[in-house]
Every structure is written in structure tokens, then in C-alpha cells.
From TrEMBL:
Gene3D superfamilies for this protein: Cysteine proteinases, DNA helicase RuvA subunit, C-terminal domain, Zinc/RING finger domain, C3HC4 (zinc finger)
Keywords: Autophagy, Cytoplasm, Hydrolase, Isopeptide bond, Metal-binding, Phosphoprotein, Protease, Repeat, Thiol protease, Ubl conjugation, Ubl conjugation pathway, Zinc, Zinc-finger
Domain spans labelled UBA: 648-689, 723-763
Highest taxon, organism lineage: Eukaryota
UBP-type domain span: 183-291
Organism lineage string: Eukaryota, Metazoa, Chordata, Craniata, Vertebrata
PANTHER family: UBIQUITIN CARBOXYL-TERMINAL HYDROLASE (PTHR21646), UBIQUITIN CARBOXYL-TERMINAL HYDROLASE 13 (PTHR21646:SF105)
Protein name: Ubiquitin carboxyl-terminal hydrolase
Annotated source species: Calidris pygmaea
Amino acid sequence: MQRAALFGGGGDAQMAAGDLGELLVPYMPTIRVPKSGDRVYKTECAFSYDSPDSEGGLYVCMNTFLGFGREHIERHYRKTGQCVYLHLKRHVIEKVPGASGGALPKRRNAKLFLDLETNSDLNSDDFEYEDEAKLVIFPDHYEIPLPNIEELPALVTIACDALLSAKSPYRKQDPDSWEEELQASKHAKTLVQLDNGVRIPPSGWKCSKCDLRENLWLNLTDGSVLCGKWFFDGSGGNGHAVEHYKETGYPLAVKLGTITPDGADVYSFDEEEPVLDPHIAKHLAHFGIDMLQMQVTENGLRDNDIKPRVSEWEVIQEAGVKLKPMYGPGYTGMKNLGNSCYLNAVMQAIFSIPEFQRAYVGNLPRIFDYSPLDPTQDFNTQMAKLGHGLLSGQYSKPPVKSELIEQVMKEEHKPQHNGISPRMFKAFISKGHPEFSSNRQQDAQEFFLHLINLVERNPVGSENPSDVFRFLVEERTQCCQSRKVRYAERVDYIMQLPVAMEAATNKDELIAYELKRREAEAARRPPPELVRAKIPFSACLQAFSEPSNVEDFWSSALQAKSAGVKTSRFASFPEYLVVQIKKFTFGLDWIPKKLDVSVDMPDFLDISHLRARGLQPGEEELPDIAPPIIIPDDPKDRMTNHFVESLDIDDSSVMQLAEMGFPLEACRKAVYYTGNLGAEVAFNWVIAHMEDPDFAEPLVVPAFGEVASSGAAAFGGVGLDNQPPEEMVAIIISMGFQRDLAIQALKATNNNLEHALEWIFSHPELEEESEPALDMMNMVNNTNANVLAETGSEGPRIKDGSGRYELFGFISHMGTSTMSGHYVCHLKKEGRWVIYNDLRVCASERPPKDLGYIYFYHRIPS
């Protein structure tokens, strides 16, 4: 069909109103009007990153409201039989200057009805946007231009109007939605700022009412600095910022410590939600803050107060160095959706690994062809879509050469696709997760484990790509008094190296710097040049291999509590070794803090000496005897005893989990629900329950009478008639009891771990019996086991080999804690380092390998 016909200019394509009505009659039952709960995907294809901006536009199904690019629309039509689609296209038209004698072109559509971002590369004085919509009927591709109100049936007109006016599918519509897309505040444009002479200093902030120095908010009307609310994660304040709003009515505040050249966290007390302030630069300048020239860190220091090439913000992002942009396959950037840089960095690293490329991009046709009717809710489809977007080069094209611009613009501007927006991927992968579904900054290490969990749960073929990360850890526990030992194995995906601060090679410089820093802070002067602790990698590796004390160790040899030590070794070496430098720790106040250190990470790593050796000659194993459980005879005493024991949570295990990046309350629940049996058992609980809606909610101790049912629910059990939770079964098995006996005991005690152990001790005659009838039950239970622990008879899938590795990537973090800052990824491709900083992909000139947070090594073939 000719272009004139598409826009209603061709007489041959026009039909009478009755003809259009008759044409649509067979399809009327399939045309739906979007309701309030429907998600309308009118800005992005379900299988690709095509949009109305793309050359082929976007087709939106008038029944499912899913969007499809030109390459994927036929697949949906064949699979569903849906025939009527709304085709959306945005055109960029060159303006004709009126001063040159010609008239300005007549706008065919006076209204921009598509909720799309404008291309910042275009000068708005020279170009304008024009949105086009038309109905397309398959399989003949018959096109009906819109608006065509008088000629179309009323239902079709209403459906088209509702679809075009529908809000973003990612905007929060109910409590279960994953994210609330930030909207511009209604106060931003007309905000009144008092001319009271207030200027915000570069450091030394504190609440003007309570002297707190954490979670501080700057009111954008009068410049008051006040504390926010208290949060479960240990951050927060006394709510003085909210009180100030109630007293004054000043609506907007910005969080100090989040201001960067890219924006800041703004909250509207009147609208009761985080908002966007399009005029934030002007509002901050009123109080002397130039956001375009400085980065304010969470402890109040400005990066431009620090000498060049010292601030981690500058070093990690390679600021001050002219970097050459990279284009083509494998060099595609990802848009930051608002504190989503942790996701961008991890996914860039993941899809640089051949096994993930083959699993998702290599199997893309099969994954797409067998995807469910709603591909936006399918993990493998969205992984394949993201992988193809990053690796195809389709969305990473160099800018048009200057000599071609004039020729191209004579027709119509065809914008280049630079980078992808992973909004649909983030919406699905974080759905139901209390942390990743928010707009807050997150820990990249925790997200990596969350991703691996989803990969494990959604097999894409006979070989799982996450197998390349999996390895076995041998843990050797020794009773210091009896010298007897116990060996156990567990599955892990990350090697966590402690920071050996005591081994710093520049201690004198650090002491001198700290004295100067305190003097400068007291005098409210700019801080001195930063001195960063230099830690030898060998010291971190040595700290990892050294024995650690086991808190509250119960020796089965002594039948009593005793001192115990534990050492960890590799029972297998993974194909790809992920190393985390444990920079994040907790202070005495449980506030997460970051160690700003430099570690000389090697390009080539050999950890062969950490290979596990198993039970050695002369070593004697600890007896397989479980600690006694004392339950008083008096029911009242039993109730009291239960609550005392329930609230006795092993803080050392909590701290070990929290240092891995998991939410504090989730760690407390994990240790509580696994009976204080150690961080390893609690870790498995965490991985198995990361998808729970209340994963990070505070621990609520069940009342008496609810103990058994609550405990079972925490492990996933629902009653006597169902199989016991696999986590509980695994705990009892780890104590040396048979699987069938563990199942029998749990079923007899309504899945209460403590009572099940008591039941086993009171039925010693059953321990030697065998239950062949339970074989089938075991098979069923194994299928429901924790996917990470993989307690099946064959054991976990591992790819053991040499312990020699080469560095090929690392993720770096800038900021003072996992709850703030920014992530950047460096990857070695085609023999050179490349920096992936959200949308910006450039050849790296000075890769800051000593400041990384997570490192990726691949095994060197032997």
C-alpha cells in the first residue's frame, strides 16, 4: 500500500463506513477494551527492543495488548489466530524554516499520543515528532488509518482510544505490581523557593533538630536539613523531615548523598511518593549546589574537593580520559531505569560468557516459538530477548556520518538505536521480590545469586548454563579439645574473600590521612587528598584459608559445648570462578558500611593449593550424634522454654549471611527457622525463600499453639497430609539419620523440627528399620528439593577441573554502601578492556582492576 493511502490521502484506499463495519464484523468478538488491571505494552516488543520509534513500528494486539515488532508479529498471529492489531509509529520530521520563504508543513497529527522518550541527539528547533496509528488486519495486512471515528464501529473506536491512553504497564496498579514508575511532581514546575540566604555546605551535614547524620533530606523550599523515617534495614531517622512538612506545607525534599550529575532522589510529602523533579538542577543551585559539577557522596564529601584520579567515582568511570565509543555486536549499552545499574552490570558480565550465549541466544528461535501466550512473563523468553539485544549489534550502531545526514533528512529521519531499555526484563525478574522490585539501589552480588536461582528453576535445555559457576565446598570442623573432625560439603557459586585490613602496606599513610581528615571535618574545610588502604591479594587469600572460630560449637565427642574451628576448601573448581571482595560490613550500630580499599587483583590466579583433601590419615571423625533437646515436662514451662529458645538467634550466623548482601531481617529469619544450625544451613534457606513476598520483612515469632504450623509454613509445608519440607528433611539427614526416618518423624509432629528430633530419640527401634514403600516418596521429594542444594542421589552438577584462572571481567561499586552509589562493569573482549557504564560503552584506557567488587575468572585449559 502506498504511503499516501496509509495516511488517508489516497482515494483508492478509502472505504465507505458500512464497508469498514462489515470488514471488522468477523473480528469484533476478539477486540477488547483495556480495563484498569490490563497491562498494555504499546512501547516495547515482547521479543525484541523494537518500539514505535523503530523503522517497522510496533504492532499491539487488540485482544492481549502485547506489543510485537515487525519481525515477530507473524509468530503471534500464527500462534493465537488474533487478526486485528493497532500499528503505532513515531516519525521524526525535519522542519521547513518559514523565514526561507516556504511555509511550515501542516501537522497531520497535532497530538503526540505515544508515551515515548524523545531522541536527545536531535535539535528540537530543526525537527518535530509525529505519531501515527492505524489498524492492521491479518493475514492480508489490510490497513485502516486512525482516527476514523465516524467510519469505525463504536467498540473499535473505544478500544483504540483506551489503548492509546493506557498508562505504562510498569506503573504500580495494585500491591503486587513490581515497581512504581516515577512521575514528575505536580509541584516541580511551580515550586516556590525562599530567598533566605541558605547555602548547603559540602560536608558536616546533620539534622537541625536531632543532630543525626544519616538519611538526611534537604527541603527544596527553605533549605532545611532534616532526618527521614526509620527503616527496618537499620537506616533512617526520627521523621523530622515529615514533621517539618506538616508544619510548613513545603512539599519537596531531596536526599543528601544521592545527588549526581544524572539526578537525585526526590520525595513529595504531599503526593506521598518518590517523584521526578525536572528542574532539580535549578532548585539545588538556589542553595549553592551545582549538581552538574560535583558528586555528593553519602558522607557529605564532594568529589571535586578531592584531587583528580583519587575519587573512586572518577577512577572507576575513567573520568578525565577521552574514551573511544564502541559499537556493534557485544558492545550494546543498557539504560539505567533509576538505580538499576546493578542489574546492567551483572547482565553484561553474564552474557559475555559463551555458555549463556549458547543457552539463550543460540536457542532463541526455539525459545520464542515455544514461549507461552504471554512471553513477557516467561524467564527464558526474556533472557533470550536481553541476550539478543546485547549481542546482535542491532541496537548498537555508530552515528550516521555527517556527509549522509543531509541526504537522510530530506526523506525522514531514521534514528539510530543506541542501547536497550531492560524495563520488561526487570519487571519480570524482580516481580514479587521486596528489594529488586523497588527503585532503590541493590547489591550486585545478591542480584547475581537471585539470577542464578531463577536460571536453576527455569531449565532451558539439557545443560544448565549456571553449571559453570557451581562448585563444592568442603568444610572441615574440628573440636579443639578432642581434636576430632567432621567433614561436610555444600554447594556455592561465589568465592568470598575477606579484606585483610591488618595487612595494609601503607599503614603510616593511612594514620596520617585519618588525622588530617578529622581536622578538616572539625574545621569544615575540604578533606585532604584521599589515601586508600593497599591490601595485597595474597593476604586476602590467606585470610580465606585460615581457620575460623565456630560460635557456640557443640562437640558430639564431648557431648557438650566446646571450642571449635572451621576451615573451607574447594572440593571442586568451577569453570568460571566468581570472586567477591567483602568490602561491605556492618558497624556496631548494624549500619552497612563500605571499606574503601585497593586490592592488587591478579590477571592470572592459581588456587590449586586450596583443593580439598578429605579425611586424612590419623584424623578421627566426630560421632554422628545430635545435640540433646531438653523440653520440660510442664506444658507451661514448655511454652516459656520455646519462646526463650525461639528468640535466641545466633548473631554470628546472621552476620555471616548479612555480609553476603542479604537483607538483615531475612538473615535473622533464616537462622531462626533452621534452628541455629549454622550459616551454611541458613544460606540454603535464604536461597530457597528469596522469592517469598515477606522475604525481607521483620521476623514475627509465632504464638504458642501456632508453633508447628508456622514453622512448617516457613519451610513451605502446609499440613500433615503433605510431604515434609525438604529443608527440614535435609537438616535431620545432616545429623546422621536416615531419610525415611526423618520424613516419618516430621509427619508425626506436624513438620516441627524440634519435636521431630525428640520423636526420633524416643523411637530408637525405628532407626534400623527400612521402609521400601518410601522409595517413591523420596523420588517425589527430590523433585521438590532446593534447586541449589540439589539433594538428589546423583548430587549437584559440577564442572571440576584445574584451579588456574584468568581474569576477564569485574564489576565495581562507587558509594558508601550497597543501598546507594553506582555500578560499572569492565569486560575483556577481543584482547582489550571495555567499560560498560549503563548506556555508555567505550574502550577502557585505565581499567581500575584494584577497585573492583566482583571479579570474573575463566579456567585456563590445562
